[in-house]
Write a structure and sequence with these properties.
Length: 428
């Protein structure tokens, strides 16, 4: 049966008895109205590289999005490529992908003095209420009674952008991407292969060295003596996508089909030993000079002195070698980090997923700090240029991922709850 006449007739009836007329609005009255188009189109400034010019067209979608979604498996860019040194065969491969979570108190667990997870008699991690996040609906901190409340992944100002390559008077489509002006929330997955950028800031206190297991006599000094002398001094470094221990160049930065993340080969752990005192600084410097293995590149840099000119504190730098530092692993499989808090409670800028026919430069917000020389310096977002590799490429902003030393090296980031409470099973 054709229901169209039944649906159309009431509409015609309403239209027949409605009356409307276009009426001009005076300028004074018009000035009281403001508005913005739902969709706008921009042409960002072109980027010139040698004889090639890249021009862009961006379609902005004026909306805010909140979502909770899951996908069993995502494979993007499945093809053979000689650049594939890890052998994954896929640009981006994730299983159990989730954007957004449901609040589960056990996801925010207690840790003991050694940085280890504390478990209750029920075998579940004990909740630490001080770590509970802010409820996006109420603006108040979650409580245990809020178990099961949705925590959507939030997106601001999404856009679609096209890059056109212009060379010798000929223009061709070089790539496109979907990006977000801001993104906040927990992204969960088992990341098996990653092409893109996923920088991480690792920051803790020197006391956390006592939770690690470095080797040799110098390792003994790091684990048992350094925490006593350094106390709450800041310890920090930076982790990037990299080649794993079984790849051709372990620890070397890799943005194509990476399976590991960690401290880049030759990059440093810096400890800001400020104002530790003349005696403590003397002991620290002497220990470094006498006992640090050459491959650590250990160095001490005095930054504070007393009125007599004696050094009272400074920076202590140790450099990674391949995938280790004094016997400690510094390269870790991506699957170890199953819950990424994008934005770390705030909106991270610059997140995008692109597909490129060749390496393409994109204008994007980049989280910049002096972390090339000092990862402890706070950063800020600035407009920059990021070159996305040929194929599928995902950028997860640096400022959104911060770990302490135990999270980075030991238990990682366990998967957060991505489904609502099942009362019959007591599970998330």
């Amino acid at each position: 049966m054709n229901f169209a006449p039944l649906l159309t007739f009431p509409l015609l009836f309403l239209v027949q008895f409605s009356q409307a007329q276009m009426v001009a609005i005076e300028d004074e009255a018009l000035s009281e109205y403001t508005g913005q188009a739902f969709i706008t189109i921009d042409e960002p400034d072109p980027i010139v590289q040698d004889t090639t010019t890249y021009k862009y067209t961006r379609i902005n979608l004026g909306m805010d999005i909140e979502t909770i979604l899951t996908q069993d498996e995502v494979k993007l860019g499945v093809y053979d490529d000689p650049r594939d040194i890890t052998g994954t065969g896929v640009d981006i491969h994730m299983t159990d992908l989730g954007l957004g979570t449901y609040f589960n108190p056990h996801d925010y667990f207690q840790v003991d003095s050694n940085g280890d997870i504390v478990y209750g008699s029920d075998g579940l991690p004990k909740p630490d209420s001080s770590r509970f996040p802010i409820n996006p609906k109420t603006g108040q901190q979650f409580t245990a009674a809020d178990a099961g409340a949705p925590m959507p992944f939030q997106i601001k100002d999404p856009y679609v952008e096209f890059a056109f390559k212009e060379e010798n008077g000929v223009q061709s489509l070089a790539g496109m991407r979907v990006g977000y002006g801001g993104a906040k929330g927990v992204m969960t997955s088992n990341m098996l292969s990653m092409t893109g950028n996923q920088d991480v800031i690792i920051s803790d206190t020197a006391k956390a060295l006592g939770t690690q297991n470095p080797e040799g006599f110098f390792g003994f000094l790091l684990k048992y003596v350094s925490p006593l002398l350094l106390g709450d001094s800041t310890l920090a470094t930076r982790a990037v996508l990299q080649q794993g221990p079984n790849d051709p160049n372990p620890g070397q930065k890799l943005d194509y089909r990476a399976t590991h993340i960690g401290v880049e080969d030759g990059y440093k752990f810096v400890t800001k030993a400020q104002d530790v005192g003349v005696f403590n600084w003397f002991l620290l410097k002497t220990s470094m000079d006498l006992f640090a293995p050459p491959e650590t590149g250990a160095e001490t840099v005095c930054t504070t002195r007393n009125s007599l000119g004696s050094c009272t504190g400074g920076d202590i730098n140790l450099y990674t070698n391949g995938c280790e530092l004094v016997g400690m692993d510094t390269c870790f499989p991506l699957t170890k980090y199953q819950s990424i808090d994008v934005g770390n409670g705030d909106f991270a800028r610059g997140m995008f997923l692109g597909i490129q026919a060749e390496d393409v430069p994109w204008r994007t917000d980049v989280f910049v700090s002096d972390n090339i020389t000092d990862p402890t310096v706070p950063g800020e977002y600035v407009e920059g240029v990021m070159t996305a590799a040929q194929g599928f490429y995902m950028n997860i902003p640096t400022g959104g991922i911060q770990l302490d030393l135990k999270e980075a090296t030991t238990y990682g980031l366990p998967r957060h709850s991505t489904r609502y409470t099942d009362a019959s099973l007591g599970l998330f």
